[in-house]
Design goal:
By secondary structure, the protein is mainly alpha-helical. It has two domains: 187 residues, Growth Hormone, Chain: A, CATH 1.20.1250.20; 189 residues, Up-down Bundle (Growth Hormone, Chain: A), CATH 1.20.1250.20. It is built from 20 helices and no strands. The radius of gyration is 23 Å and the shape is globular. The chain starts with a helix and ends with a helix. The N terminus is likely disordered.
């Protein structure tokens, strides 16, 4: 019986890896990411003239990205909850609707103070619901080739997004600010066919030994979101019996059920979250505001768009280089993250000291490579520290931590610019945001070394 179960499982896994629809899912994932957030790195290029003409504050723009970061995490939690009752694909469609509505409402904004709702809340929750659907469906179709497929998807996204700023520059010149937002809203609608690709042609995932012997099958949504929890169905039934009735108790039950707060008892994990949250906040906000800094330097839209494209191209190059190096030798991902953060801090200080376009372009390219290494290493640092079964909850808590740091500190960065009427103090503050990681992790390393 055991041999039969093993043969069935291996046979289905083989079929999953070779099912051609999986490559359609890859294409759908690429579409969703490009259509959903492809324009985010060009925010400064899009909104620079609008901020000037409406006397809007930079605080509103940075606050919008802070709200987006935390709503991204909340969107994932919402999807996890509703997937108990509807399919993941339907959850993805709900996310696409919210994302499209947020993009459409952005067309009618009169100042950047409305962006925290249209971009931050609606688009944040919407995209936060789409991302887990894409990743979970990819995990369904690819087992042995999962890392390779994910790397290729990210690489293709990077190559396409490398040309996005040039496209935005052309659209702005031809159709103006509102016309550009309308076209971006139309591009966002492509998330619907992207989500439409997120379906499974194979009826069920491979059953485990216990379920096959008892004649039971596992719920597809639970498989996709938590493929390593073999007894989740039994636990869900027990949870339903013990589910509290009061509203406060239900809220506590949901938090405990979907966020494994016990992991916060691990001081090393908490230190990892603190460091990564500040680095992530600093990274995202830096590249959102960089085009405006370059406009302040006196660069033209063509030169600003070129810098954004150089950064995107360097990002792709950095991912390929890291993938090639890691295939030949073992890499300590946490050390990579720490060293990269240190180099990022130095590079950001350097870009504030130069004004010639060639030097700014070179430093921007270096920052693009470093950004790629940070993004690749970030989830791996978590996965290398926590048990595999705890990774979904651990990563969800990291996203919440990133969101909270964004909400708390993003407005302060914008206020610095508004107070001094200069972006340079804000960029120095963003560089300082790398220090919690560098200091806290160094203290932890020294303490563990002594022990």
């Amino acid at each position: 019986m055991d041999k039969h179960v093993e043969n069935v499982t291996n046979s289905v896994k083989h079929n999953v890896d070779n099912d051609r629809w999986g490559y359609v899912v890859c294409f759908g994932t690429i579409i969703c990411f490009i259509a959903g957030i492809g324009h985010v790195n060009s925010f400064g290029l899009i909104y620079n003239d609008f901020i000037t003409s409406t006397n809007s504050t930079a605080k509103s723009l940075t606050s919008a990205h802070g709200v987006f970061a935390i709503m991204l995490a909340i969107g994932g939690i919402i999807l996890n909850i509703i997937s108990k009752r509807v399919s993941l694909q339907i959850g993805g469609f709900i996310g696409a609707i919210l994302l499209s509505l947020g993009s459409f409402f952005t067309i009618f904004i009169t100042n950047t103070a409305q962006l925290p709702f249209t971009f931050g809340t609606l688009q944040g929750i919407g995209f936060g619901m789409i991302v887990p659907v894409c990743y979970s469906t990819l995990n369904f179709y690819f087992v042995r080739k999962r890392t390779t497929v994910m790397s290729m998807c990210k690489a293709i996204q990077g190559v396409i997004l490398m040309w996005y700023p040039q496209l935005i520059k052309i659209i702005l010149s031809s159709y103006g600010f509102r016309g550009t937002l309308l076209i971006i809203s139309g591009i966002t609608l492509h998330t619907f066919p992207g989500v439409l690709a997120m379906r499974t042609q194979i009826g069920k995932k491979p059953e485990n030994k216990t379920n096959i012997e008892s004649g039971k099958t596992r719920d597809e949504n639970v498989d996709l979101l938590n493929e390593n929890e073999s007894n989740r169905k039994v636990e869900s039934e027990n949870d339903k019996k013990e589910e509290p009735k009061s509203i406060i108790s239900k809220l506590g039950f949901i938090v405990q059920n979907y966020l494994n707060l016990r992991i916060l008892k691990d001081p090393v994990y908490c230190n990892i979250c603190i460091g990564q949250s500040f680095v992530n906040f600093s990274d995202v906000t830096f590249f959102v505001l960089q085009p405006m800094l370059l406009f302040q330097y006196g660069y033209s839209k063509t030169e600003v768009a070129m810098c954004i494209s150089i950064c995107a191209g360097a990002d792709v190059t950095g991912r390929f280089v890291l993938a090639a190096v890691s295939s030949f030798t073992h890499i300590n991902v946490r050390l990579i993250f720490y060293v990269t953060t240190c180099l990022t801090l130095l590079s950001r200080i350097a870009i504030l000291q130069v004004r010639q376009f060639v030097w700014v372009a070179i430093v921007t390219g270096i920052l693009g490579v470093l950004r790629a290494w940070l993004h690749v290493a970030s989830p791996l640092v978590i996965s290398n520290h926590v048990p595999h079964k705890d990774f979904p909850a651990a990563y969800a808590l990291l996203l919440l931590s990133v969101g909270l740091v964004n909400v708390a500190f993003a407005p302060a960065i914008g206020m610095l610019k508004d107070e001094y009427q200069d972006y340079i103090p804000a960029f120095y503050a963003l560089a300082v945001c790398c220090l919690p990681c560098l200091f806290c992790w160094a203290i932890e390393f020294s303490i563990r070394r002594k022990w």
